[in-house]
UniProtKB/TrEMBL annotation:
Signal peptide per UniProt: none
Top-level taxon: Bacteria
Keyword NAD: yes
Annotated protein name in UniProt: dTDP-glucose 4,6-dehydratase
Domain NAD(P)-binding intervals: 4-312
Cofactors that this protein relies on: NAD(+)
EC number(s) on file: 4.2.1.46
Organism: Micromonospora rhizosphaerae
Length: 337
């Protein structure tokens, strides 16, 4: 099986590539026939793409790296040829950046996805896995979204992801393409670019600095370890039904204030290190996914509880200053998402 992973040098895509290549059978595909004979990473290496994320598998002869843009039709056509499966992670992914400027989000997330879908259609790719987000549903005060819930995105980021989800599903309905869509909750874990809330807070605290807490800190997110997310994607890649959407969640909801309290404790810091900042425009109050479908159909359950996952993640950032210090030197200090 030849797998093309777009955005494979980013946070989640690189975990997927490491998982596919490192430990077949245990953490990767459950069906040995689905172990990859080749994995191609197509990545533009934007600010959040980093070849260091692939260092553990760099010497694997099955891995090929192509630096390029998913909007580049000629390149995409050439790269897609010969692959059985596309797992599509490449995206502009940070809500705050989409508020400052939406154009790259529409270009990469919508046009880039359409460019890939067209190439997959031309080349008869067997399966297209489109990786998306719970943010496409907007915000929910009580209860949890099921996969049939109407889409009501509130940020330019989530609107562009909703557009790409609908395009992917339309290629299934219109052309009969084998497309599956996953929507997950907030990911955390190693190799996450330090603009997102957990690595931003942890690295600021490890540096002796302060952390910016949006609004009243009452926004609630479900936290999912990146490895559990990738296990769920692998199950969907192998066994998901064409044309279907599958939720992948972590099962632990925390308010930003609760998360902050946890991170302060893990970094031996107090509330004097927290600086309240004006709330994000259009900030969704709560996200919550119902994951019954993937649990019942594919046997998915999160395996890493939040306390263990956060402890390991904080330790990873303690141990990998050489990875994040150069990245932090180049980003704005007050963004958190
Ligand atoms: N991080 C989360 O909590 C989360 C939650 C839900 C869904 N998602 C989705 O998962 C996917 C991966 O997210 P992530 O957190 O790993 O993001 P990331 O920003 O860490 O990685 C994105 C990768 O895509 C690459 N990329 C960006 N534009 C590209 C282009 N035009 N052509 C080729 N490559 C390009 C970047 O270089 C980077 O390597 C995204 O589709 C995102 O919407 C993420």
């Amino acid at each position: 099986m030849r797998i093309l992973v777009t955005g494979g040098a980013g946070f989640i895509g690189s975990e997927y590539v490491r998982m596919l290549l490192q430990a077949p059978g245990s953490t990767g595909p459950t069906d040995p026939h689905l172990e990859p004979s080749a994995v191609t990473v197509l990545d533009k290496l934007t600010y959040s793409g980093n070849l260091q994320n692939l260092a553990p598998v760099r010497d694997d002869p099955r891995l090929r790296l192509v630096r390029g843009d998913i909007c580049d039709q000629a390149l995409v056509d050439e790269v897609v040829a010969g692959h059985d499966v596309i797992v599509h992670f490449a995206a502009e992914s940070h809500v705050d950046r989409s508020i400052s400027g939406a154009a790259p989000f529409v270009t990469t997330n919508v046009l880039g996805t359409q460019t890939l879908l067209d190439a997959a259609l031309r080349h008869g790719t067997h399966r297209f896995v489109h990786v998306s987000t719970d943010e496409v549903y907007g915000s929910i005060d009580e209860g949890s979204w099921t996969e049939t819930w109407p889409l009501a995105p509130n940020s330019p980021y989530s609107a562009s992801k909703a557009g790409s989800d609908l395009l992917a599903l339309a290629y299934h309905r219109t052309h009969g393409m084998d497309v599956v869509v996953t929507r997950c909750s907030n990911n955390y874990g190693p190799y996450q670019f330090p603009e997102k809330v957990i690595p931003l807070f942890v690295t600021n605290l490890l540096d002796g600095g302060t952390v910016p807490l949006y609004g009243d800190g009452g926004n609630i997110r479900d936290w999912l370890h990146v490895h559990d997310h990738c296990r769920g994607i692998a199950m969907v890649q192998e066994k998901g039904r064409a044309g279907e959407v599958y939720h992948i969640g972590g099962g632990t909801e925390l308010s930003n204030k609760e998360l902050t309290a946890w991170l302060l404790q893990a970094c031996d810091a107090g509330w004097d290190r927290v600086v309240p900042v004006t709330d994000r425009k259009g900030h969704d109050r709560r996200y919550s996914l119902d994951i019954s479908k993937i649990r019942l159909e594919l046997g998915y359950a999160p395996s890493i509880d939040l306390e263990r996952g956060l402890t390991q993640t904080v330790q990873w950032y303690r141990d990998h200053r050489a990875w994040w210090e150069p990245l932090k030197a180049g980003i704005e200090p007050a963004v958190a998402g």
